[in-house]
Design goal:
Enzyme I, Chain A, domain 2, TIM Barrel, transport, sugar transport, 22 helices, binds phosphoenolpyruvate, Glucose Oxidase, domain 1, about 45% helix, globular, alpha/beta, Pyrv/PenolPyrv_kinase-like_dom, phosphoenolpyruvate-protein phosphotransferase activity, PEP-util_enz_mobile_dom, binds magnesium ion
Length: about 550
């Protein structure tokens, strides 16, 4: 057997196939003095930047879904006025359009890389746009994804959205990249489309075309030229996973039959039909603020009621958890708080902002109670960003007073997790928002690329807090849901159930994989995984310990 390369696996799939590498990028344009006038070079640059933007946008439209959004963002990069000005300045100093475009994009790229994390991972997008513009200037084909007749494992430095949008998924067995981390586009695409992927693999670019490899996302291993036994074991596991995924239909449950209802996170009623089709057993988080992000004034009771009725009608007899407007930091709502704050994540946000504008909160609860009365869904309401027992009492009392029968709180702040027993003495349920809980536990702004590596819900400190809420749920007999991104990570979902979560809510595209993973383990196993994760020293160790215990 050949070498084993290592990287970060996305999901738990496994695939066997032959390597096909992305074509190498275009060579760097030479730094020659232009023979044309600066105006003529600027016109060439302008035309090619516009053409690249138009082509990228067209691809986005053809691809649809999340690819459309990322490609749209890329098209904007080619139209960025600061960047275009920088190209002009470089042309004025005597450079060719090709060289000026190359340098201007490279300078912007370096800036993003120096910011690290999420921003650093967007650097690949800029490289891709730059290459496309330079190719257009030269009149050559843009570098792109290979499209052979046979299935293959695509090996690349990293994939840009323009590449991922064009992948023929019926032929791509797996993705292996040398760069990129768990939040890169390759990783996002792999999760969304359930493609086997290992990212950040050192040595990946030395893999020669047609080499056979085994790509194991569960372990992050890429085995080069596998022997017969390794190959056969990998194929057997791939077949098992495929069978498990298609067998796992119906309500979410562990292998021993313990039910774990699988719910959807939605931001508008538009996603309801898709969620139902993907098997959502209800809604675990309806983010009402998404309906009003562009509003300058508070929505009226009638406006809100119409939206809620539309959502509730899609889930007759099912549980629908509606969150009161969650304003602040990543979700600004000017009608709730437009003050400039030094630290908006620690500011007047969530329930604090609602309380400071109680008439708006009352209108929302009234609209929801009226929608509830006119439909057959089982409506639950919860408050965002609750940090004290007193706030819990305030919200639940008001919600009940206004006619809502099931009132709970989100646990997103460590103080609420630590006092979960007292919070659940009053609230009907708790729903853990792991995105914010991780942000506050690790003291790392979830929007800041430079600290993105801290935003990992596998961190044992976060899991310990989840465990506190789980324990309180068991003693009080009240439900504890999870509605942050953590619930969409199949193996972490099992750990969360082991820690006491009774329902999981996620974006609908994640439901199938989480359902299949839950069906593999019993509650005892889930609890054992939870103990393993809790005794780790870091997120990386926790993930590795549970992955290895869960791998047959
Ligand atoms: C969370 O914080 O985990 C959560 C679900 O809420 P949001 O992502 O909308 O802040
Ligand atoms: Mg939150």
């Amino acid at each position: 057997m050949g070498d084993v390369l290592h990287g970060t696996g996305i999901g738990r799939g496994i695939a066997v196939g032959t390597v096909l590498r992305m074509p190498e990028p275009l060579p760097e344009p030479a730094d020659d003095t232009s023979a044309l006038t600066p105006d003529a070079e600027k016109e060439r640059a302008r035309a090619s930047l516009a053409a690249a933007a138009a082509i990228i946008r067209l691809r986005g439209e053809r691809a649809g879904g999340s690819a459309k959004e990322v490609l749209e963002a890329q098209a904007f990069m080619a139209e960025d006025p600061t960047l275009i000005d920088d190209v002009g300045v470089r042309i004025d100093s005597g450079k060719t359009a090709e060289r000026a475009v190359y340098e201007a994009f490279a300078a912007f790229r370096d800036l993003l890389v120096s910011m690290g994390g999420y921003m650093g991972e967007r650097a690949t997008d800029l490289d891709d746009v730059s290459q496309r513009v330079v190719a257009h200037l030269r009149g050559v084909a843009a570098p792109g994804v290979p499209d052979p007749e046979h299935p293959f494992v695509l090996v690349a430095r990293d994939l840009a959205p323009a590449d991922t949008a064009l992948l023929d998924l019926s032929k791509v067995l797996a993705l292996v990249t040398s760069d990129g981390g768990p939040t890169s586009h390759t990783a996002i695409l792999a999760r969304e489309k359930s493609i086997v992927a290992v990212v950040g693999v050192t040595g990946a670019l030395e893999l020669a075309d047609s080499t056979e490899i085994v790509v194991d996302a569960a372990t992050g291993d890429v085995t080069v030229a596998p022997d017969e036994a390794t190959r056969a074991a990998a194929l057997a596991r791939a077949a098992e996973l495929k069978a498990a995924r298609s067998a796992a239909t119906g309500p979410g449950a562990l292998a021993d039959g313990t039910p774990v209802p699988l719910l959807a996170n939605l931001g508008s009623a538009d996603g309801a039909a898709d969620a139902v089709e993907k098997g959502a057993e209800g809604v675990g988080l309806f983010r009402t603020e998404f309906l009003f992000l562009d509003s300058a004034t508070a929505p009226t009771v009638e406006e809100q009621k119409a939206q809620y009725v539309r959502l509730l009608q899609a889930f007759p007899g099912k549980k629908v958890v509606v969150r009161a407007l969650d304003a602040g930091a990543d979700k600004p709502l000017s009608f709730l708080n437009d003050a400039a704050e030094e630290n908006p994540a620690l500011g007047l946000r969530g329930l604090r902002a609602l309380r400071a504008n109680e008439p708006i909160l009352r209108d929302q609860l009234r609209a929801l109670a009226e929608a509830d009365a006119e439909t057959d869904a089982d409506v639950w309401v919860m408050a965002p960003m609750v940090s004290t027992v007193e706030e819990t009492r305030y919200f639940t009392a008001l919600a009940r007073q206004l006619g809502l029968k099931t009132a709970g709180v989100m646990v997103e702040v460590p103080s609420s997790a630590l006092l979960a027993d007292r919070i659940l003495a009053d609230a009907d349920f708790a729903s853990i928002g792991t995105n914010d809980l991780t942000q506050y536990t690790l003291a790392a702004d979830r929007l800041l690329g430079s600290v993105a590596s801290f935003q990992d819900p596998w961190h044992p400190a976060v899991l310990k807090l989840v465990g506190e809420v789980g324990k309180a749920g068991r003693t009080t007999g009240k439900p504890v849901g999870i509605c942050g991104e953590a619930a969409a990570d199949p193996l972490l979902a099992v750990v969360l159930v082991g820690l006491g979560a009774t329902t999981l809510s996620m974006s609908p595209s994640a439901l199938a994989d989480v359902r299949a993973e839950l069906a593999r383990f019993t509650l005892d196993e889930a609890r054992r995984f939870a103990d393993l994760a809790l005794s780790a020293n870091s997120a990386v160790e926790a993930r590795a310990a549970v992955t290895s215990a869960a791998t047959p």
